[in-house]
Amino acid sequence: MYKNLIFLILISSFSTTFSQDKKIQISTINSITFDADQFLGIDSFGFSYLIKNNRFIKSNGKDAYEYKNISLGKITKIDIENPLKVVLFYEDFNTVILLDNQFNETNRINFSKNTTPILASRIGIASQNQLWVFNTLNQQIGLYNYLKDEYKTVSTPLLENIKYYQSNFNVFYWIDEENNWFSCDIFGKVVALGKIPDFDDLTILNNHQYIFKKTNLLFFKDISSPELGNLLQIEISEKTFGNFHYKDQILSIFTFGEITNYKIIIP
User: Fold this and answer.
1) Separation of CA 98 from chain center
2) Which of 180, 127, 192, 205 is CA-nearest to residue 155?
3) What is the mean pLDDT of residues 28-49?
4) How many CA atoms lie within 13 A of 2 on its CB side?
5) At 103, is the secondary structure helix, strand, or coil?
6) N or C, where is the chain less crowded by C-beta within 10 Å?
């Protein structure tokens, strides 16, 4: 309680000091009603991705697709970075499922059967028919080519446990339990990017910008622009909300039954 109070006081101080001249422009696009347990995001084709009762669903209001796999248990992670190659991770069974854009299963990867011992705990899509894999057996980040069935380690062992991670085709980002932020590219180059404030939810935009949620408030931080004060509040109408998603200047807020989409312009 006291930590949250101190955080809010600091945030108020930052916002008062730095947001007088620089503000994030934001306007409402629309609101969409959904019955779901979790909102994952919206792709460039206008499809929203959701989870309901462990069923993976995508819908644009007209067309809808659904995937469920009872035999693999609960879905641990879904990567929608590439809408044409969606990645589902079932950690309990050390298995990844790849789906096409109509949710047909195209690949099933059981890492327990791999010639190189792999116990995956973090998964993401990478470039060149590869997947990012964090192997807990050696605490290292690797790349798995799902067409050639080949795996290679690219990082040195991580010193701290991963608290949060996010990836794209070329970079694997993670934040450790001390809130230190790192990146690893596909060639294995690891870079320490700085310290992240305490957060409830987070989306990394690139290697110097991110949006984070704390106590039902949203903030944008740019570690490379001191003139912005490094911290700006994103003022939305929702007083409480579940999670959020940002992509291509569209900020989506999920309030357990409704998704509100905003257009935002970051200075």
Assistant:
1) 18
2) 192
3) 90
4) 0
5) coil
6) N
pLDDT in tens, 89-106: 999 999 999 999 999 999
Distance, CA of 110 to CA of 104 (rounded, Å): 18
pLDDT over 50 (residue 175)? yes
pLDDT tens, 185-211?
999 999 999 999 999 999 999 999 999
The two structure tokens encoding residue 58: 């995508």
DSSP conformation letters of 38-52: EEEEE-TTS-EEEEE
Segment 93-99 long-range contacts (CB within 8 Å, at least 24 positions apart) = 94/118, 94/119, 94/120, 96/120, 96/123, 96/131, 96/146, 97/67, 97/69, 97/72, 98/146, 99/67
End-to-end CA distance of the chain: 33
Decide: helix, strand or coil at residue 215: coil
Give the separation between CA 23 and CA 232, rounded to whole angstroms. Answer: 7
